[in-house]
TrEMBL record:
SMART domains named among the record's database cross-references: B2-adapt-app_C
Lineage: Eukaryota, Metazoa, Chordata, Craniata, Vertebrata
Sequence ranges assigned to domain Beta-adaptin appendage C-terminal subdomain in this UniProt record: 487-674
Superkingdom classification of source: Eukaryota
Main location: membrane
Transmembrane residue ranges: none
PANTHER family: ADAPTOR COMPLEX SUBUNIT BETA FAMILY MEMBER
Keyword Iron: no
Locations listed in the record: Endomembrane system
Protein name: Beta-adaptin appendage C-terminal subdomain domain-containing protein
């Protein structure tokens, strides 16, 4: 009995051989069914054996199969890897017709195979993405709702590597009246990613119409989409959002207040408009999310909202009937922060709220927060302010909205699977402080620029720039004394603006801390201050700067608006550096480019976690007062006409320390800036 069962479970060699023979059958249906049978029988062994003869036979007969058969053949062929480059391009030529197939399943299966084969040829992969644009747009208009949703999800995936792929066809993503809510919401997510200067007015006008949709989820999604665009076009979006508040509809008001909260976090310059719009919103808000958003706004900008104490009093009077724990905790924080800036108006209501939270509240989270604030007040106002009113970011800085174009390899394995349908919208940037400027990134790199930035020439170019600038600082010469081993830059893992700010201030505090023991406890780090001379670095457009930086895997996080002094740019990258056959050493480098409009003496100095090499303030010939009057543009032009070169101060901070990697990165950055400067000139 057991031997019979054993013989039944093992694949019969004769049957397997016969099935392999039938792969040559002239009937394509027989061929595909044999292929499928072999896949099932040989599942434990990894499936059917795919070699060069079988691969080319299946590809040559691909057109004879029906849609299901073509998808099955293409799926099986993903396990095959060509032996030579000539064979690879022969296979790609055979797949070219299927790449633009009118059948979306065949197109998707072909592109998935295409991306797998071209993993070492990113330019070929990007060209393939361009080819499938028309089939994907056709699939977005399919009568099948399922097909439309799948196409939209895969388009979002492609936009991660080619942000401008669908830019000229944005109208294809306008919502139809009878479309289901889940398709409308996906289309709005795509529209946010396609916004640029040319189409922003039309897209915002379209989204405004969706804000009053009978489906509340669709209306709230449209308001959220307007908020996403508002990070780049704040004035236009705030005008729409303020008008929506006049409708006095509960779900619309709630969504608008939440969107305004997110918007002012990214764009502090919008706070005046938002504060004016908050008057009277509390009467319409009923849901907990909207009330929490309103309370957060009052906590941050309460000193500029005249009715803030009266609004809080309404919340505090009804705290016993409040069912949301989140609202109660937000109310506590808001009352405390408002007390610090308007004590006379809020002292009595703060006492009543703390008494209720400590003596009557049954939720432990609210009670603990009440005890915390009560004890904090006993420590004094100064201690309370340190906790509740921390340091804020420079409002003149602008977060670059938009993520760097991802390599296709990061998502290629999930293409033509269910993963894109499971994923939510991809955030362009996490909420962060700053005032955004819109950047349109051209996915097609500048060939001339990439040739100029050949990494094999970087060290030579940097050495020449050092000679031209006349710097002879001994510390810097030690850092750049020899040709660096191979160095590669990477944008992953991504550093959020909040993480960047924390690391930047942490490194800044390290060198201002007077306690030497605390310095020794800090992790090994290095800081380089360099001045780069160039006639027009500070006058490059943000678009050109971001594109050039991303070309060499340097991510620009924030910048000041054009024609504003002091001009700043913040950036980061990760380095992979190999030391004489050892394992690659990874470091994080964060940096600042600063142009003040003043003629500063060139200083280059290496800082470490110890006392060695600490930059002494006052070493520059002229100090630039923070927040001082900017230099008029006419003076900058005059300096250029007189042949005076402008200097950009570069501050780089590295963790952990690797002098060779830091030197190599500075060489790359210098080459990028000199290339941009020469093109501008």
């Amino acid at each position: 009995m057991s031997s019979a069962l054993f013989s039944f479970t093992l694949p019969d060699a004769a049957v397997v051989n016969e099935l392999y023979t039938l792969l040559r059958d002239p009937d394509p249906v027989v061929m595909v069914n044999c292929l499928r049978a072999l896949e099932e029988i040989l599942k434990e062994e990894g499936g059917v054996a795919i070699n060069k003869p079988i691969t080319h036979h299946l590809l040559n007969r691909l057109k004879e199969c029906d849609v299901w058969g073509q998808c099955e053949v293409l799926r099986v062929l993903q396990r095959y890897r060509p032996q030579t480059e000539d064979e690879l391009f022969d296979i790609l030529s055979l797949l070219d017709a299927s790449l633009v197939s009118p059948h979306p399943p065949v197109m998707a299966a072909t592109l998935s195979l295409f991306l797998g084969l071209c993993s070492a040829l990113p330019a070929v992969g990007l060209a393939a993405l361009e080819r499938v644009r028309a089939p994907l747009l056709t699939a977005c208009g399919s009568p099948s709702r399922e097909m439309r949703l799948t196409a939209l999800c895969h388009i979002q995936l492609l936009l991660r590597s080619l942000p401008g792929l669908m830019g000229a066809h944005y109208k294809r993503f306008f919502c139809g009246y009878a479309e289901p809510a889940y398709i409308k919401q996906r289309k709005m997510q795509v529209l946010v990613e396609l916004v640029n200067d040319d189409n922003v007015a039309m897209i915002l006008d379209e989204l405004r119409g969706y804000c009053t949709d009978v489906n509340t989820d669709t209306a709230q999604a449209a308001i959220s989409a307007i908020g996403g665009i508002g990070r780049s076009y704040s004035d236009r979006c705030l005008e729409i959002l303020t008008g929506l508040l006049g409708l006095k509809q509960e779900h619309i008001t709630s969504a608008v207040v939440q969107t305004m909260r997110d918007l002012v976090w990214v764009c502090p310059q919008c706070s005046d408009t938002v504060c004016e719009a908050l008057e009277g919103c509390e009467d319409t808000l009923q849901d907990s999310q909207g009330r929490q958003a309103l309370l957060w706004l009052l906590a941050v900008y309460g000193e500029r909202v005249s009715s803030a104490p009266y609004t809080l009093e309404v919340f505090i009077d009804g705290v016993r009937s409040e069912t949301s724990v989140g609202v109660k905790m937000e109310l506590l924080t808001t009352t405390m922060r408002l007390f610090l800036c308007r004590p006379a108006e809020t002292q009595d209501m703060l006492g009543r709220l703390l008494h209720y939270c400590i003596e009557e509240e049954t939720d432990m989270c609210v009670r603990d927060q009440g005890h915390l604030y009560y004890r904090l007040l006993h420590r004094g106002i100064e201690e309370t302010q340190k906790v509740l009113q921390g340091r804020r970011s420079d409002p003149s800085l602008g977060v670059l909205i938009g993520r760097p174009a991802e390599p296709v390899s990061q998502w290629a394995c999930s293409f033509n699977t269910l993963d894109p349908l499971k994923q939510g919208p991809v955030e362009t940037e996490p909420p962060s402080r700053g005032s955004p400027e819109h950047v349109t990134f051209d996915p097609k790199p500048n060939t001339d620029l990439s040739e100029t930035l050949d990494c094999s020439q970087i060290v030579k170019l940097h050495s020449a720039s050092d000679r031209a600038s006349g710097c002879s600082d001994s510390s810097a010469e030690g850092l750049a004394s020899s040709v660096a081993p191979p160095l590669s830059l990477s944008l992953t893992p991504v550093l959020s603006p909040e993480e960047f700010e924390r690391l930047w201030l942490q490194r800044q505090d390290l060198h201002t801390e007077q306690d030497a023991e605390k310095r020794e406890e800090e992790e090994d780090c290095a800081c380089l201050v360099e001045h780069i001379r160039g006639p027009a670095i500070a006058h490059c457009s943000p678009q050109s700067l971001q594109a050039a930086m991303q070309l060499v895997n340097i991510q620009t996080l924030a910048f000041t608006p054009p024609h504003t002094l002091p001009w700043r740019v913040y950036l980061f990258t990760h380095t992979q550096h190999t030391h004489s056959g050892n394992a690659p050493h990874s470091t994080l480098i964060v940096g600042e480019l600063l142009y003040t409009g003043e003629a500063n003496r060139r200083v280059r100095l290496v800082k470490t976690g110890s006392d060695d090499g600490v930059l002494v303030e006052g070493s520059e010939e002229e100090h630039v007062r923070e927040g001082g009057d900017p230099t008029p543009a006419g003076l900058r032009e005059s300096a250029r006409e007189n042949g005076e070169e402008e200097e950009v101060k570069v501050t780089l901070k590295q963790q952990p320390r690797d002098d060779s990697a830091l030197k190599g990165f500075l060489s790359i950055l210098t080459t990028v800036l000199h290339t941009l400067s020469s093109e501008r000139a």
